[in-house]
Amino acid sequence: MDHDIMPTIIQKTRDRQALSASEIRQLVDGVVSGAWPDYQLSAWLMAAYCRGLTDTETFELTGAMADSVGPPQEPLGLVDKHSTGGVGDKTTLVLAPLVASLGLPIAKMSGRGLGHTGGTLDKLESIPGFTVDLSPEAIRAQVRDIGIAVVAQSSTLAPADKRLYALRDVTATVDSIPLIASSIMSKKLASGTRHMVLDVKVGNGAFMTTLERARELAQLMVKIGEFHQRHVTALLTTMNEPLGWAIGNAVEVNEAVACLKGGGPEDLRTLVLALAAALEQSVHGTDPDTAYGAARDALTSGKAWDVFVRWIAAQGGQPASVEHDLPLAPIAREVHADRQGWVAAIQTQSLGEVALELGAGRHELGDRVDFGVGLQCFAKIGRHFDQGETVAIIYARSEGSAEEAAQGVRAAISWSPQSVAVPPLVLDRIAGA
Ligand code: URA
Q1: Which has the closest alpha carbon to 99: 150, 141, 138?
Q2: pLDDT (tens digit, 9 = 90+) per residue, 372-394?
Q3: From 45, 83, 180, mutation site for ligand 1 pocket: most ligand atoms within 8 A of C-beta
């Protein structure tokens, strides 16, 4: 390794001169080995943030980060899904068993909740006995036996991203499209999966608040996938309202179970079917209608539910606990519409923060999560309510926190006396060639 190369790398990115593949490999090697100190990496990240990276540089950076753990391993699963995160996003709990029931093995690494967005691992851990820590051998065996495993991300997966992300977090360089795209896709490439669907959330509860930036991010991630011979489909989906009704942990598992049994909110079912169809289409090359029909049949026939029950048991969960609703916090406070009218807008992030303050999430990594608290918010943009109708139910541990949450819910919903159009859920679809 050339020990004087970092100043040159920083200068080139600062002056918008493209780095070669070899320079990018040396950059990433030094991230992992510790050869480059934080101050040089921070300077480079700021240069990349301000000046951008070319597509080719981003492809190379992603590949080098994906390889930073060593030579590629045998893939754990055939398909994968990634969501850029939002409020009430319990999609994986339904989608993973659904695609497994379609014969598409899935080994998904998930994360924990932080701030106003929840995490799949916390939701799963609200099922008594469920464990998210499996060895690679156990993941492989479970995927071979039942076609599905959802586990905590291994700390050794793409270690370069781990160090760079921590530096980005404290140097105001998170919000850069090439850096976000390479960070997300390096972990997806490292897991070896050939087919993936990306759910890029757009709106006031998401990382990407405008359609333009979300599209730019999605296009870049699809191109990274193409460069590395992966089949990537991205759906841009709305996060201008929570997904489904439930926000929390156990309450979201209950909603996912309802969806697997053929009920639950329509938007959740629609999104899960769209994502499953994208994977079915990607793997089998079927036309969109056939792929959607296969996904719908697997959900409505109970095939996906059967896989869900086997999956929960395989990871130590008590299957009986999901046959009926998981218990929620004892105080159930209803919030009623104080007028008749149509829901015009929802401050989605605020609703995520209501759940966070109830105890359903974490302010900081390491905080304890209360699985039983949360809320169901039945307000959806364009839905009509009569005065006094139930808009939300809050599940809290104390009267005081229930009251505070009720005020938060009221403040998050704007009303119109005229009817409001129901906005689309899927805003765009971007697929590789
Ligand atoms: N999620 C990631 O994994 N990386 C980013 O940079 C942003 C979101």
Answers
A1: 150
A2: 999 999 999 999 999 999 999 99
A3: 180
| Structural contact between residues 76 and 193, judged by C-beta atoms closer than 8 angstroms | yes
pLDDT at 3: 73
Q: In terms of domains, do 255 and 286 share one?
A: yes
| Residues contacting ligand 1 via CB (< 6 Å) | 165, 174, 179-180, 183-184
Lowest mean pLDDT of 15-19, 150-154, 199-203, name the range: 150-154
Lay out the sheet containing 413-416: strands in order across.
Answer: 384-385, 341-346, 413-416
Average pLDDT, the chain: 95
CATH classification of the domain holding 313: 3.40.1030.10
Distance 142 CA to ligand 1 centre (A): 27
Residue 422 three-state SS: coil
Looking at the structure, tell me whether residues 138 and 268 fall in a common domain.
yes
For residue 421, is it within any domain? no
Domain count for the chain, please give it: 2
pTM to 2 decimal places = 0.95
Catalytic residue list: 82, 161, 168, 183, 187
Nearest atom in ligand 1 to the alpha carbon of residue 184 is 3
CATH of the domain at 374: 3.90.1170.30
3-state secondary structure of 200: strand
pLDDT in tens, 211-253: 999 999 999 999 999 999 999 999 999 999 999 999 999 999 9
pLDDT of 314 strictly over 80: yes
The parent domain of residue 132 ranges over 79-156+190-323
The verdict on residue 225 lying in a domain is yes
